[in-house]
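Dear colleagues,

As part of the handover before I leave the project, I'm documenting each prediction I ran so the next person doesn't have to rerun anything. This entry is a single chain, and its sequence is reproduced below.
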Amino acid sequence: MGEKPQVGQTSSATATISDTDDLDGIGSIFADQALESSASSGSTSLHDRMTPLDPSQWAYDSGKVIEKGAVILGGVEQAFGFGLRQQYFHKAAILIVDHDEKTFTRAIILNRPTDVMLDDDINPGVKWRVWYGGDVEGLESRKPSIICLHSLKEFRIVDASVPIMKDIQWTTFENAQKLVKVGVAKPTDFWVFAGYAGWAPGQLMGELERKSWYMVATDSQTLLKELARLGAGSDPRDAGLETWDLLMNMIGRGETARRNTDTFDDLMLKEWALKHLLSTEAGGGAGEKLKVPEGTPSTQELLRTNPIDRLVSRVAAASRGEDVTEGSLVRASSADRSPFLLDNQVFHKSVVLIIMDDESFSVGVMLNRPATKGINIQITEKDSGKSRIIELPLRFGGQYSVKGSEPLLWLHCNSVLRAAKVGSPLGPQESGIWKCTAEDMVNAVGKGLASPEEFMVISGVCIWTKGEGGIARGIQGEIKSGRYEVVPSSRTELVWQALKMQQLLTTENLNQTLLAGEEGWKAGAATSSVRDKKPTETEGALVFKSDVKVATLCDDALRSWVATFLLGKPSLDS
């Protein structure tokens, strides 16, 4: 990690920079003619819309050389990109500010400007524009890590800074405030970064070998000009993509950049930027804190309530369609901009059966996510004595397992089976979904009470925790926040019948399986909620600077998740 010098102090790490110091990133490792060759070849393939290059600017692909002052570009040739998680790394330009191969590599993302302003508690009325530097100790952390890049050469500023490369240094936010206070600098002299990206020893090298990144050596003027351009009023929703394009062209990878324009990952990055870079005042979500809705008690407050009062409250909530008990069905939000667009995409348009709800957790299983594996069951018909093997699709219920419970959950929703007492009801309503065992299923089919298709078998569960802060109230909190909706018990049978149409997941039936799952999700909508649904600002909305509807992108993200994690074929996500 880099040192944090104070104004007026000096150390060996902050010596005055001279023109002869080797601080050009990685320039000392290569011959001068190699630099000239890279600079000339890189400057000939720029897009017309890119920042014009000064003859002195250069950049080249430095292979796998990791060093302070080097730039890491987000790769686009790896098998599994950043579309489904960590979208901020997609097409990122990341400057290494500290590197020790035995301990840690620390870097900041350069091309993610926000329009969020930080107040200054030392200089009244002064505000600082902040940039997203990375996912570690960012603005949402209790103690954000904030550093300020600059290219100032006044000796007091240099003494309070740590050099990264020629003409680029960093200092702490506190130092920058003090320097402005004493009049040797202005707020606009600094670029303020909150958060950083970090790699353990050997981690970054492993990711380079998987083509997750490209290593780049470049001159300071190229980076300073891009920082100046981005800081001069660029829209945060652009997510700094032009900076990545510029550097890719300069290192001779312009064709790769052109082939990977307006991709799924690009669109996901723009949606991430809307939520994390654009301020709430401008219609985004940057700087927004998770708030507990007014009147929402915490789980602990609920437990301290008189049991009779708690029961009355739950009955009233049930009458409003807000209460959830074991055996209840819930379905994911019907909002055009799914709350699961940027993470946990598998929950988009999901149907979940709640199988447990206590003081600590809500536990449920997804019903509409068939997997690629099936369960082979031998059935012996009672009358003929003949045996046959049937295969039931195994459904992905969630990423967790409950210790001490059966690994597979068997379910049915059939009136004949209920009348024959095959299994037991989940929850208080005997007319809903029942749980049973594999033996129950074999016996029932053998007796001719039902066909194998009347049963579902689930592996894995979903878990929602409960805690002190009202919003963490298990599945109730998910419903309160609008991420899930309660399925009326009168529609349980309709949902079940739709989901029976799903088969074992294959490459060929991926789209058909997702459509059948969506039909089950649609069947769970309360008639009144469909009739009373009002248009929202996001209805029919397009992804920034594209003709792709946000609702379509949400469906594409679910498809990508299923293709990647259930089929094991990320290439099918396009």
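The chain has a mean pLDDT of 85. The radius of gyration is 29 Å.

All the best with the project,
I.
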